[in-house]
Amino acid sequence: DADVTQTPRNRITKTGKRIMLECSQTKGHDRMYWYRQDPGLGLRLIYYSFDVKDINKGEISDGYSVSRQAQAKFSLSLESAIPNQTALYFCATSDPTGLSNEQFFGPGTRLTVL
Amino acid sequence: GQNIDQPTEMTATEGAIVQINCTYQTSGFNGLFWYQQHAGEAPTFLSYNVLDGLEEKGRFSSFLSRSKGYSYLLLKELQMKDSASYLCAVPLAYSGAGSYQLTFGKGTKLSVIP
Fold first, then answer.
1. What is the pLDDT of residue A100?
2. Which of A36, A99, B66, B87 has its CA 20 to 30 A from that of B44?
3. Are B102 and B85 in contact (CB under 8 A)?
4. Which DSSP state fits B36?
5. Model pLDDT, residue A110
């Protein structure tokens, strides 16, 4: 089983709809992140959480909100989706005690807003 | 702030050696990461350099010069499966206990041809 999972993997929605993307992990990591990836722009950080009660804005948080329901779950919401939020979204985790400080990425959610 | 530059695209021949460069500007240095990302898939960790010099890991090596704000990823004995994007990333902020927010470069798309 994958250590970091994302649901759904693909979603097509319409402008103005509320969308929730979910991320779950079995790695036991405290740190979780949400990124979006756009062609030519690379990966950009939306929100991150270092613990269940900790939420921090990243580079591009406008139009998004998050919820850290448990150590293993971190959800990203688009309250009113707009077409320029069409992108590939990745969740990631990291272990603060790890030697390499690497982040582990989920498989991604491809979101299309029409 | 952070600024990361890497070439947009590169092409190399199967069996050859290719070097992918990354230059960065950061207010505080806490290491440099390289990730590999195949099209439509999640980024996967390749290397983490925090000290100057070359670190070798099989066919892949990563070099860092902190004084020059420069790193490169060296891929030897190229294989077709090495066709992917290679992402350079530096930590945006250190939150203590070894965890970081990462700022990613836009990635270098490597095409390996027969």
1. 67
2. B66
3. no
4. E
5. 97
- How far apart are the C-alpha atoms of A101 and A80, rounded to whole Å? 34
Instruction: Inspect the interface and report whether the beta carbons of A42 and B107 lie closer than 8 Å.
Output: yes
CB contact under 8 A, A108 and B95: no
Q: How close A107 comes to chain B (CA, Å)?
A: 5
Q: Kindly tell me if the per-residue pLDDT of A66 is higher than 70.
A: yes
pLDDT one digit per residue (tens) for chain B, 114 residues? 468 999 999 999 999 999 999 999 877 777 899 999 999 899 999 999 989 999 999 999 999 999 999 999 999 999 999 999 999 998 876 555 445 678 899 999 999 999
- How is B46-91 classified by DSSP, letter by letter? EEEE-SSEEEEETTEEEEEETTTTEEEEEE-S--GGG-EEEEEEEE
Is A90 in Cβ contact with B42 (below 8 Å)?
A: yes
The minimal CB distance from B43 to the residues A97, A100, A105 is found for A105
Chain A hits for B97, CB-CB cut-off 8 Å, are 96-97
Q: Per the CB < 8 Å rule, is B43 touching A100?
A: no
Nearest-CA distance A97 → chain B (Å): 6
- Residues contacting A25, CB < 8 A, separation 6+: A3, A4, A5, A32, A72, A73, A91, A93, A104, A106
The residue with tokens 């293993």 is A72
- Give the pLDDT confidence score for residue B97 in this predicted structure: 47
Task: Answer whether B99 sits within 8 Å of A96, measured CB to CB.
Answer: yes
